[in-house]
């Protein structure tokens, strides 16, 4: 007698759709039918559906999880209604800030939706230039980690560790590159489904084109080119940004970060589902958590993000800056970041239970110490950065020809007091300074080439618009004023900081 359990048979399309539909409202079901009708009309009739591809960009967070589920429902609805349907391409982008828990969430979502073994699904993981079939345990390419670490350090030193410039500027340009690669890979896609409203898309496009125009890019030509033109504008912005960050002579670094602009022969159409759904996660909590198996992991769920651990490091950097660069306490910096984070979470209409969960991780001295250790371990394990390197970044001692180098050494490395002349000489590239150069590289985790670039560069003034970094942050909504203390006078002031 065979006591082994009989394997469950794969669900058919009807059963899968009914299972999914049970978690959707009547409004959402009508939206699914309406999107399906629009797709049929756009492709020229149901007979042509199997030759069409629809793409969803999947970050692995709660919002994009809902979009994947919605578009899967559209795919199944068309199959049941017309006996044929489109191919669904789901592409997820990774960077060093994406922990394994996000890939595990994605795997559970794909499994619940029946996508893992469906021939009508292309599940792609895009690690910068490397495109592979999704697998939950795909290793992150070492070159991508190296690239992300260098960008964090160079951006962080120019911005004294401010959250968005440090972690998001380069990443946002990488997202544009991801769209170009994912949308045009192997013949491209016909439609890109998005959860962004048409208004959001229009505002984002207008901001990009304004930034592009200020960078000397022909925006009228970009407008005529549609989606590819937007990527072309972003490519120009990115090239200007990285020339400013690394120096105009660093062609290899600039080229490696250049935004992919796709093939003009195919222009995918954007279709928004925004008006057909509610984006408040508590309106479809049962679908996301109970049916799709989404888990709000300790690292992956960081303040406003549910697919990236970098906001945990943003808070940590604020604490380190307060403690070391400003002579206050780590806890004071954390309190300031929490003030920003709560503002951001409420602006995004996150449910109260998730806001409480995010903030409760810091609600006692013991928990703050625990989060500090977790953030330090994350920086070390993911980016290969020690606390010394993070402190150097928030102090920004190398920019402006080392204007803050002496204060940095006195505060953080008193054993080097009296040797700052040798450090300056090494940063200027003078001969006979190998020992000083070795110490600088060890403390900063940067090469002397990059340190000398910083030495020739200025700490960004975010109240002015001379630099690309300041222009980018000026148009970034993810910032707010927080109550802090002027370290020079000890008086209370408001400071505009950014983060997630």
Short description:
This protein is α/β, with parallel strands linked by helices and 500 residues long. The chain has 23 helices and eight strands. Strand 2, helix 4 and strand 3 form a beta-alpha-beta unit.
Give the SSE map.
Layout: H1 13-21, H2 26-43, E1 53-57, H3 62-82, E2 87-93, H4 100-112, E3 121-127, E4 130-133, H5 142-159, H6 163-167, H7 169-184, E5 191-194, H8 198-214, H9 219-224, H10 226-246, H11 251-256, E6 269-272, H12 285-291, H13 310-325, H14 330-347, H15 352-360, H16 365-383, H17 387-395, H18 399-402, H19 405-412, H20 420-428, H21 434-444, H22 448-455, H23 468-474, E7 479-485, E8 492-498
Parallel strand pairs: 1-2, 1-5, 2-3, 5-6
Antiparallel strand pairs: 3-4, 7-8
Helix pairs in contact: 1-3, 2-3, 5-17, 7-10, 8-10, 13-14, 13-17, 20-21
Q: What is the share of helical residues?
A: 55-70%
User: How would you state the average pLDDT, rounded?
Assistant: 92
What is the makeup of the main sheet?
6 strands, mixed
| Quaternary assembly | single chain
The whole-angstrom Rg is 24 Å
Q: How many separate helices?
A: 23
Judged by helices, strands and strand pairing, the structural class is: alpha/beta
Major sheet strand order: 4-3-2-1-5-6
Distance separating the two termini: 58 Å
Shape: globular
Total E-strand runs: 8
In percent terms, what proportion of residues is strand? 5-15%
Low-confidence stretches: none
């Amino acid at each position: 007698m065979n006591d082994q359990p009989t394997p469950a048979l794969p669900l058919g399309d009807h059963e899968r759709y009914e299972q999914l539909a049970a978690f959707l409202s009547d409004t959402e079901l009508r939206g699914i039918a309406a999107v399906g009708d629009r797709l049929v009309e756009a492709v020229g009739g149901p007979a042509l559906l199997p030759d069409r591809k629809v793409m969803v960009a999947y970050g692995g967070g709660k919002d994009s999880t809902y979009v994947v589920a919605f578009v899967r429902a559209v795919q199944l609805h068309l199959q049941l209604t017309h006996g044929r349907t489109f191919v669904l391409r789901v592409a997820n982008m990774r960077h060093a800030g994406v922990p394994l828990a996000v890939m595990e969430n994605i795997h559970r979502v794909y499994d619940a939706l029946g996508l893992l073994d469906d021939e009508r699904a292309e599940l792609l993981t895009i690690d910068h230039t490397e495109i592979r079939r999704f697998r939950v345990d795909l290793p992150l390419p070492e070159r991508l980690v190296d690239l992300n670490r260098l960008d964090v350090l160079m951006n962080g030193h120019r911005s004294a560790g401010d959250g968005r410039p440090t972690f998001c500027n380069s990443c946002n340009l990488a997202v544009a590159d991801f769209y170009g690669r994912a949308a045009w890979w192997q013949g491209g896609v016909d439609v890109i489904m998005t959860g962004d409203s048409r208004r959001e898309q229009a505002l984002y496009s207008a901001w990009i084109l304004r930034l592009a125009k200020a960078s000397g890019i022909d925006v009228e030509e970009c407008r005529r080119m549609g989606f590819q033109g937007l990527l072309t504008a972003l490519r120009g912005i990115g090239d200007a940004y990285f020339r400013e960050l690394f120096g105009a002579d660093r062609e290899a670094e600039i080229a490696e970060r250049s935004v992919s602009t796709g093939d003009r022969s195919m222009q995918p159409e954007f279709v928004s589902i925004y008006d057909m759904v509610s984006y408040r996660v508590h309106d479809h909590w049962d679908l996301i958590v109970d049916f799709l198996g989404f888990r709000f992991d300790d690292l992956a769920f960081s303040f406003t993000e549910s697919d990236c651990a970098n906001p945990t490091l943003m808070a940590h950097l604020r604490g380190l800056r307060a403690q070391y660069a400003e002579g206050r306490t780590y806890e004071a910096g954390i309190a300031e970041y929490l003030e920003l984070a709560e503002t951001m979470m409420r602006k995004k209409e996150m449910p109260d239970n998730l806001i409480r969960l995010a903030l409760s991780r810091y609600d006692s001295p013991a928990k703050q110490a625990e989060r500090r250790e977790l953030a330090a371990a994350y920086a070390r394990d993911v980016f290969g950065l020690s606390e010394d390197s993070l402190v150097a970044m928030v102090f920004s001692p190398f920019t402006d020809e080392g204007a803050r180098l002496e204060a940095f050494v006195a505060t953080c490395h008193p054993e080097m007091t009296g040797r700052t002349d040798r450090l300056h000489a090494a940063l200027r590239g003078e001969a006979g300074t190998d020992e000083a150069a070795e110490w600088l590289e060890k403390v900063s985790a940067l090469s002397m080439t990059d340190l000398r670039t910083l030495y020739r560069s200025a700490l960004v003034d975010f109240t002015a618009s001379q630099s690309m970094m300041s222009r980018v942050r000026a148009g970034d909504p993810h910032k707010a004023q927080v109550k802090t203390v002027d370290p020079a006078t000890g008086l209370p002031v408001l400071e505009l900081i950014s983060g997630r």
